[in-house]
Design brief:
Elements (H helix, E strand, L loop, with lengths): L17 H10 L5 E5 L17 H5 L4 E5 L9 E4 L5 H10 L3 E7 L2 E8 L2 E5 L6 H13 L11 H16 L2 E8 H5 L7 H4 L2 E8 L9 E8 L8 H16 L5 E5 L5 E5 L7 E3 L4 H31 L1
Parallel strand pairs: 3-4, 9-10
Antiparallel strand pairs: 1-2, 2-3, 4-5, 5-6, 7-8, 8-9, 10-11, 11-12
Helix pairs in contact: 5-9
Length: 312
Amino acid sequence: MIPEGHTTFQPNRLVLEAAHRAAVDCFGSLAGLRLSLRPARRYLFQEPPDVRSLQVELRKPAFAALVAEDDPDAEAQLVLETEPISPGIRALYRAAGIPVVTVKCRLGACQFIYERDGFYGDLRPAEELVDQTVQFLLTCAQSAFYRGRLVRTVAERQIAERLRGIADEVNCLVHHRMPFGYAVGYRPDLPGRAARQTIELVLGFDPRHSPAGEVVLPIRVETRPAEERDPEVAQLDEDVAAFAVRAGIPMVAVERTAAGEYAVTCSMDGIEECIIAEDDAQGWARYFDVACKVALERACSSLRGTEAQHSG
């Protein structure tokens, strides 16, 4: 449950470095595919790996996953990394047969390191061959049979479907399973465990149109009633909600009730709590049409203010 409250805020930027930009430019406009930025690695597997020594790394995100535009489950077709990954994570990817491309950018030139099933390829194409190389990598990846689903519940599918409709109209993307710390950005007062808590859906500006790919609206979806949830996880959710209000971050929480419906609350002023049935597509659409409009207005206002400060 999120109480109302607001202060000024700055949307977090997801595209910051040259390698991020190269990954977006090379893989962000492929026909029939879309980027889901910063998915927690544990959800790139069919079942989250139970390796105690790697749990922190598994809760951290890859840079992106490529998913089919028309796939309601958002299965990861190809994983994109832009930072060095540990031998332990690399071994898990390899054992699961997950195709991974590490994108690097050196002196303006792209480098693609492709790994899958023990195969390792280091590709450094000339500029005029980058598109052909990306298509080759995509063809290699599409033969993979082991794909993690980034959307795993009916409620998420209902919300994601409406968000995608909104996103197409306003140059945004829908991201899945993003750690809270990446949705809101680095903040010294954000506890580490709360930062690693997963946010199921995130609406963000498309980095092909807004270069930094700023976050617009994080959406937490909890499909278990409060009575059935682990107390520790429930407390983390409360900590995340409280932090969102304290920091003035637009956020929506969707929580299943004992009756099987969903209580929907929002940290933004003027949007009332409501109850929506899981299969009520129109109800989800009405709520998120309003919530996304308000969040977009706030994000755009904040970005205009930042630009004005820099120009001044």
